[in-house]
Amino acid sequence: MKIYHLIVPEGAAGTRAEVCIARGMPLLPAYVIREAFKRRDVKMNGRRIDKDAIAEEGAQIQVYTAFSPEIPIVYEDENILLIHKPAGLSCDEDGRGGMTALTLMQEHAGERYAPRLCHRLDHQTGGLLLFAKNDESEACLLQAFRDRMLKKVYQCLVRGEMRPAAAVKEAYLIKDADRAQVRVITHETPGARKIITEYETLSFDGQVSRLRITLHTGRTHQIRAHMSFLSHPLLGDDKYGDRGLNKRLKVNGLRLWATELTMQAGGCLAYLDGRKFTVEPPF
Length: 283
Description:
Blueprint: E1 2-7, H1 17-24, H2 30-38, E2 42-44, E3 47-48, E4 60-65, E5 73-76, E6 80-85, H3 101-109, E7 116-117, E8 126-132, H4 135-146, E9 151-159, E10 166-176, E11 181-185, E12 193-204, E13 208-215, H5 222-229, H6 243-248, E14 256-262, E15 276-278
Parallel strand pairs: 8-14
Antiparallel strand pairs: 1-4, 2-3, 2-4, 5-6, 6-8, 7-8, 9-13, 9-14, 10-11, 10-12, 12-13, 14-15
């Protein structure tokens, strides 16, 4: 029997426990959650609850089940492991508890190797996530990420029509660690780091634009904060976005996905240089 943990996030108070679990544990199918409730195998703060119980902000929910979730493997060889991470799954331990991409890949690896996380995606962001499988490939990938050699491309949905339809935008970002968020400004100032975000409009339906985003710098919440600063916040973003629009459009979950990764690491991974991996976003 496995135990999966979930910390009820800010803003989720008042949500039914069943809904909260479905959002916070994206790899547990609906039937698994229903069966856990029927068996009385769901607890909140140590007390058994039913599916209609109301989630309390900051509470710990535990789901007991024999189900073992799997993450789609996009590519794997003797050096690297590339997966398609779902939204709502943390890359590694971040205080929310429960399953993470790293722990699931450790289960996948068993005793064969120890997967090493080489970069991260936000908890709410899904898409391509890369692991190294040995010391040599880890060193190679970490250096490639530091040197901005690997090209990462995202897709997102934003409010309004982008004008111009494509551009490269520069600004400065200040991180507020205490509030776990960032602020974007136009000018250089002590503590601010330069950000460069390139976007291309793929479509516009009269209200929402679909963008292809290429990061030339990789800062915390860069896409979310920069697009909000440009007056085009991402759909489903309650931290930097338009909550009213999210509510009107009934958008649950951040509309941001890591859709492309082009390898360019050299060294022991030179055989993969120039190879592009892609996935489709679910929105």
